[in-house]
Amino acid sequence: MSLGIVLISSPAFAQTLPSTPTPQSSAPSETASVRKNDTLALVCASSEQSDQHSSATLRGTVADPAGTAIAGAVVTLTRDDPKSNQQASVSDDGQFAFVELVPGPYRLTIASPGFASEAATGTLAPGQTCVLPRITLSVATNITEVRVELTPVELAQQQIQEQEKQRLLGVIPNFYVTYVPHAAPLSSKQKFELAWKSTIDPVSFGVTAAVAGVQQATDTFQGYGQGAQGYAKRYGAAYADFVTGTYIGGAILPSLLKQDPRYFYKGTGSVRSRVLYAMANAVICKGDNGRWQPNYSGIVGSLASGSISNLYYPAADRNDVALTFENTLIGIGETAAVNLLQEFVMRKLTPNVPNYEPAPPQKTSP
What we know:
With 366 residues, the protein is of the alpha/beta class. Helices cover 35% and strands 20% of the residues.
């Protein structure tokens, strides 16, 4: 903000000056201004004092940096007595005037659309006609505050990318746990993306190969036989179990039921509260609305995956309904055990864990 000051005499004022100075007249004072707290203290460019007991007059000119008059600018005169406050509009030639003023201190505020407002202060003597230096308004600088915020989907995508770096001992995928206290809910696309990344991870193929090797060595699923063909069938069945379980329980049903398939790390509270929290998360989960609810996705997904496995297991090894439910209950127990490891062990063994504050204690009931 700047204020240009030029020594001038108002034409209107010049017509009122007497041709011969009276004893009370004073020579025009030198133009001066001092800026304090973004306010100019102005000394009249020219003035005349007549009657020491009469009212005062204040005149001035408002222009832009190029010297062009700013017609229509509003000049507000503020006095100690609020009843004495006045406003004047700048004329086409840039001039304004306040007449019959009570002597004493004053404050001027000059404002016009498109220009930065300016303020000036001074003191009027009794009977003084004061012509101020030209007041120059600078062009206003537009300050635009832009806040860039991620949408919930973009925030969730950013968090997923961090999750996909989580590997036990830097190798084994640990994608289905979030250490963000208030993680953004996943969209359906993101749930399928997480399932896809898990099922095509090289470590997943390696673990499946190991499982098939153990089954081959113990002659599990005898209907598959032995040799390379038997191993291939066992490998295919084990991988099919993994894919169906991951997609149905981690993507399809969570998308339909609007549930989150991840384990939300707690990390605070007593050991007992954390144990109960981890075990409860085998049968409850967070909904996309952030509320706890029965984990229909995981439980029904396990049942569905077990039923589908009957399509490719040897006839002698296929599960009946009772065995499918039994395996589902066993799966719930296995999930609870994994959750306990997630809560107390796996975080310490997982590099690239986001450095977030642990979540506050939460209830473990839906």
